Amino acid sequence: MSADSKQPQPPEDGAATAADSTSLLLSHARLTDGRTVDVRLVGGRIEAVGTAGSLTTVGARVDLGGYLLLPAAAEPHAHADTALSADTPGPVSYAPEEVQRRATEAALLQLGHGATALRAHVRIGDVHGLGPLEAVLQARRSLRGLADLTAVAVPRLLTGVAGADGLAMLRDAVKMGAGVVGGCPDLDPDPAGYVEAVLGVAAEHGVPVDLHTDGDDPARLARLAAMAGGLRPGVTIGPCAGLARLPSDAASRTADRLAEAGVTVVCLPQGGCGGTELRGAAPVRLLRTAGVRVAAGSGALRDVANPVGRGDPLEAAYLLASLGGLPPREAYGAVSAQARAAMGLPEVRVEAGFPAELLAVRGERLAGVLSLAYSRIVVHRGRVVARTSAVREYCDSAAALDLPRQARPERPPEPGGPPAGPDVRS
Predict the structure, then answer these.
(1) Which DSSP string corresponds to 348-404?
(2) CB of 92 within 8 A of CB of 85?
(3) CA distance 338 to 317
(4) Rounded to 10 degrees, what is the CA torsion of 277, 233, 329, 280?
(5) Are strands 209-213 and 180-183 parallel, antiparallel or unpaired?
(6) How many CB atoms lie within 10 A of CB 120?
(7) Is 129 exposed, middle or buried (0-12, 13-18, 19+ CB in 10 A)?
(8) If you compute the radius of gyration of the chain from its CA atoms, what whole number of angstroms results?
(9) Smaller CB count within 10 Å for the chain: N or C?
(10) In what helix (H) or strand (E) does residue 75 lie, and over which residues does it extend?
(11) Alpha-carbon span 28 to 63, nearest angstrom
(12) CA dihedral 346, 283, 156, 189 (to 10 degrees)
């Protein structure tokens, strides 16, 4: 399991290795180019892709007839320590067992939606110290073999006398296992000094940077881009909704600087998060036109910042298409290929040799599954780790007697699914 988002690390024990060594055949899967194929997975990777019915396996088989097979989604901006706390009576508990429970439940919820890799921002410092981070790292260990969880250490202050403790704690967080350093420079009295401190720790330890910023100050973003340029393994910022409130010429110049520096922007189409106070969405099309890599995350998952947050990457893609005007392929790419790239993860394609990180959604075309993405099958490291099956039924009334039924009676029911019949599956 990876604690460092630069490259996935080997599993910490034999559990994931045993899972990776199995063989699995995904049969009759539809691809976005219209082909129907069989896909054989071995050792956590795609071993072969062939026409439907052409491949065999000595292992398990999952019939994906009626499903669209996609590279799995990834979650580049979650908040594991506060997730699922909106309904908590009184103050939110940061007791380690509570944080671990919420972080684990939230990760499983997002895994069920299709995100097999997650980057979770975790606040450190104040009265809680490194306790929440330790709890999230424990959740990461418990999720081994199901999903890859990377923790981002988020200190509150890093400059001045008050920031000295925060800077020392940030270094300790990386030594503990935080794979990314982050924070919110907008909340520090010296935003530029905060960014400089974070970049310094990142350079010391060779880890990525992921910062919260509203992005409404062009001069501040220009300084960030100048400092971040050339840093490896890279700098990510988000949600940058403030860029959309700038005059178009100022926003364009800022986007150009971010592109030149290689800074990635993670937008949050489903709502904000605790790291920024203002809502809205980043100007995705303007950023993409400038050449900025744009990924999409979920942000708050049912915490005080967004008590109805779903943590669903397909909903984020849906909003990018329906409100942001992106073509469905680009919208889904923001939560899959671009999200994985922002997290330093290997590319995934439904082709031989690529990692077996896959998501099957009932439907025939990408636009359709972004509209009605109910039934899903999630594959991580070559095995099915989550399955959601939704069945819609209508009453048998006189008005409905002559309505057409779903015409797939000849295909047997999918393994573990409901019996075949005249239902309408979504």
Answers:
(1) --SSTTSB--EEEEESSSHHHHHHS--SEEEEETTEEEEEE--EE-----GGGTTS-
(2) yes
(3) 12
(4) 10
(5) parallel
(6) 27
(7) middle
(8) 22
(9) C
(10) strand 73-78
(11) 6
(12) 140
Report which DSSP code applies to 98.
H
Structure tokens, 15 = 């559990």
Choose among 246, 251, 198, 252: nearest CA to 224: 198
Q: Residue with structure tokens 């180019």?
A: 33
Cis peptide before 328 (omega within 30 of 0): no
C-alpha 180 chain-centroid distance:
15
Which SS3 state, helix, strand or coil, does residue 144 take?
A: coil
| CB-facing half-sphere around the CA of 68: CA atoms within 13 A | 22
Cβ(78)–Cβ(106) under 8 Å? yes
Torsion of CA 188, 95, 177, 102, to 10 degrees: -100
Listed in sequence order, the residues at least 6 apart from 354 whose beta carbon sits closer than 8 Å to its beta carbon are: 45, 46, 346, 347, 348
Residue 2 makes CB contacts below 8 A (sequence gap 6+) with 8, 9, 117, 148, 150, 179
Q: How far apart are the first and last CA of the chain?
A: 33
Please report, in tens digits, the pLDDT of each residue of the chain (426 residues total): 333 333 333 333 333 444 455 799 999 999 999 999 999 999 999 999 999 999 988 889 999 999 999 999 999 999 999 999 999 888 899 999 999 999 999 999 999 999 999 999 999 998 889 999 999 999 999 999 999 999 999 999 999 998 999 999 999 999 999 999 999 999 999 999 999 999 999 999 999 999 999 999 999 999 999 998 878 888 999 999 999 999 999 999 999 999 999 999 999 999 888 755 567 889 999 999 999 999 999 999 999 889 999 999 999 999 999 999 999 999 999 999 999 999 999 999 999 999 999 999 999 999 999 999 889 999 999 999 999 998 888 877 666 556 565 545 444 444 444 444 334 455
- DSSP letter at 405? -
**What 3-state DSSP class applies to 83?**
coil
Dist CA 149 CA 143 (whole Å): 8
For residue 148, give the amino acid letter.
Answer: D
Task: State the pTM of this model.
Answer: 0.88
